[in-house]
Amino acid sequence: LVTKLITVIAPLILVLPAVNIVMAIASHTTPVTFLIPAEYEGQFCVVYGEEWGVSPTFEEDRMVLTIPENGILIIQSEFDAGVIDHEYYLVDNGGGRKKIVSVYSLEEISKQMPCVYSEGTGSIGGGMPDGSFSSESPLAITFAHFTVSNKDPMLAANHKTEQLIDSLVNCGRR
Fold it and tell me: Is the dihedral of CA 78, 81, 85, 86 positive or negative?
């Protein structure tokens, strides 16, 4: 009986932690540093996987994404799903960086300013040969959008996502 218990329990004790460690390592994304104009307020959007987008730079092992004044950054890199490692900085005209926090709920915005709230990721499906639409289509748009609350939580909460996405769809890329 003891031998049977050991042969059943020992693999569970050894295998489960090993699987968790492998999954944790495998699911991490490329670390990203977001550089946001110091006076920026409101939403910004990053569109991934566009061949005509900008090629991100790297500082050490971190991808650096510089958010433009219009809040829409289109990059060549594909979207990388998994556990994120994001850092956010407000950048003044002289290039000075001030690190800001990431908040995880809209209620935290007024308590943590300046801050960034990750609104989430998504895709707009593209046409498929059978006439349907799918996020797997080469014509699909994959994006992540965020809200920067710099000085005014009400302004930051004024959701402009529809305007950003409409701009992407209407930009004439297809």
Answer: positive
Rounded Cα distance, 64 and 73, in Å? 12
0.70 surpassed by pTM: yes
Nearest to 121 by CA among 141, 138, 143: 143
Beta bridge partners of 122: 143
Question: Tokens 């959007």 map to which residue?
Answer: 45
Query: E strand or H helix at 33, and its extent?
Result: strand 32-37
Residue 21: which residues within 8 A CB-CB, separation 6 or more?
A: none
Q: How does pLDDT run across 81-107, given as a tens digit for each residue? A: 788 899 999 999 999 999 999 888 767
